[in-house]
Amino acid sequence: MKKNMFLLLVTASIFSINAAHAQNEPYETTVDGVKVIVQPSGNDIVEIQTVIKGGVQNYPATKAGIESLTMSSLTECGTLKHDKNAFKDLLDKVSADMSGYANKDYSVVRMNCIKSDFETVWPLYTEAITQPKFDAKDFEIVKENAITALKAADGQPDAAIDNFANKVAFVGRDYAVNPLGSLETVPALTVNDVKAYYPTILTRSRMLIVVVADLPKADIEQKVKAMLAGVKQGAPFTLKKSFFRPYSNQFKSDARELATNYVEGITSGPQAGSIDFDAFNIAMNIFYDRHFLDVRTNNGLSYAPQARFSVGATSVAKITVSTTKPNDYIAVFDKLVDRTKHEGFTADEVKNMKATYLTSFYYRNETNRAQAGAIVSNEVLFNDWKRINTLVSKVQALTVNQVSDAFRKYIGNMIWVYQGDPKQVDPLLYINGTLKHDNPVTH
Predict the structure, then answer these.
(1) Matching PANTHER family, A to Z (predicted)?
(2) Is the pLDDT confidence value at 440 over 70?
(3) Is 42 left (phi over 0), alpha (psi -120 to 50) or beta?
């Protein structure tokens, strides 16, 4: 009954979305060299996201955090026409929301308001993007908040182990950089650094604009054209994608006094847009369930073991656990991977996960903001925003062999990192494996 309910939910979601599209199709247009993607919403909410591509590829590691501070400052430091308080007051009067943030692959400045307030909010949004004030006093508040957040993250073991894993696995690569910066880089950044940096990334060649709203095409194009009038074209830009594969198991530890130990492993994953992408995505979702069952339910080694596919310009698989018995954990992990590679996944597992995955996808994308975010990530990472409209057919067409083979192909050697009591872990078990026959984490 549960399986049938998942399928019914997916079918209902597809039917409702396709019916809406039949009445008012999404489309793309180009305004002065900038792609604008419009998804009619069927409601009275306007969500607009202006994207600047590049992320951590835009700056050196010594300036980590500069783009994040810049994006936050756009809406937190006032504009040349309105100081911070006046700007915030105008937004509060119409209950509009505006913010900026940065991640590893791109940054976003977004606005959200009721359709009837759009004419009031749009000029403020344009000001924030094209006429930021970068007030020195307000910037210091933004920076202090960023430093506080970094300290808090370092004190959160889940965030700390992931940052540590990225630094170790991606050493020498852009992806080693935390887009939020570090406690070494952010305090050194100044308002003048941000003022000088912003014009280097605010170019039409890096921009993408996504609109999820019921607005006339002519109105959208006219407003975007006016906003872009003062934005330079800039040099051509293409987000660089890279494939990650460890050629041997590695282990690095960081001694910390924690209530329990934290372990994270990073290995390969298919690039966005590759032929194995959807199959591997389903494979990792099934493996998450198997990993959880084996590690927590069957062996009681971790409260919340994780296995996920981290998608970006460099896509990888990540395994994370907190455990008081790290040596027992790696033995369980090795056996699980070995068994999965030899036996593959079952037909029922693949069938059920496809239904679960698609249901979850539509559930997560119910709001205008989530829909805009999905369009942005698919366009930036896959160069194909329309992928969200073909996802169902592609996932449903996957075979058991494709899903099993994708797991075998990419789950290989691991970069392991460890935070906790170094006396409780034997690094050789992670480096050499625990099985007596061929190491399951090698090809």
Answers:
(1) METALLOPROTEASE (PTHR11851)
(2) no
(3) left
Same domain, yes or no, for 197 and 305?
no
What pLDDT digit, counting tens, does each position of 242-296 carry?
Answer: 999 999 999 999 999 999 999 999 999 999 999 999 999 999 999 999 999 999 9
Please say whether the dihedral angle defined by the alpha carbons of residues 118, 120, 126 and 129, taken in this order, is positive or negative: negative
Assess contact for 78 and 133: CB atoms under 8 A: yes
**Model confidence pLDDT, tens digit, residues 159-189:** 999 999 999 999 999 999 999 999 999 999 9
Rounded distance between C-alpha atoms, residue 261 and residue 265, angstroms: 14
Domain membership of residue 224 (yes or no) is: yes
Instruction: Note whether 284 and 405 are same-domain residues.
Output: yes
| Beta bridge pairs of residue 310 | 316
Q: Which residues, at least 6 apart from 186, have a Cβ–Cβ distance to it below 8 Å?
A: 64, 65, 69, 143, 146, 147, 150, 180
Task: Provide the token pair at 98.
Answer: 């505006």
> Cα(314)–Cα(210) distance, rounded to whole angstroms?
23
Q: Do 287 and 176 sit in the same domain of this protein? A: no
Residues 263 and 209 in one domain: no
Assess whether 119 and 153 both reside in one domain: yes
SS3 of 383, please? coil
> Pairing state of beta strands 34-39 and 207-212?
parallel
**Residue 362 banded pLDDT, cuts 50, 70, 90:** confident
Residue 372 inside a domain? The answer is: yes
Q: How do strand 250-255 and strand 415-420 relate by DSSP bridges?
A: parallel
Q: Are residues 356 and 212 in the same domain?
A: no
Q: Name the domain count of the chain.
A: 2
- Map residue 134 onto helix, strand or coil: coil
Which of 171, 198, 228 is the C-terminal boundary of a domain? 228
At position 312, the amino acid (one-letter code) is: G
- Within a domain: 9: no
Residue 47: alpha-carbon gap to chain centroid: 19
Same domain, 139 and 179: yes
Which range of residues forms the domain containing residue 264?
Answer: 250-432
Closest by CA to 271, choosing from 341, 180, 175, is 175
Q: What is the pLDDT of residues 58-107, one digit of tens each?
A: 999 999 999 999 999 999 999 999 999 999 999 999 999 999 999 999 99
Shared-domain flag, residues 269 and 145:
no
* HSE of 228, CA atoms in CB hemisphere, 13 A: 23
Q: What is the CATH number of the domain that holds 67?
A: 3.30.830.10
Answer whether residue 71 is part of any domain: yes
CB atoms within 10 A of CB 442: 12
Q: 415-425: per-residue pLDDT in tens?
A: 999 999 999 99
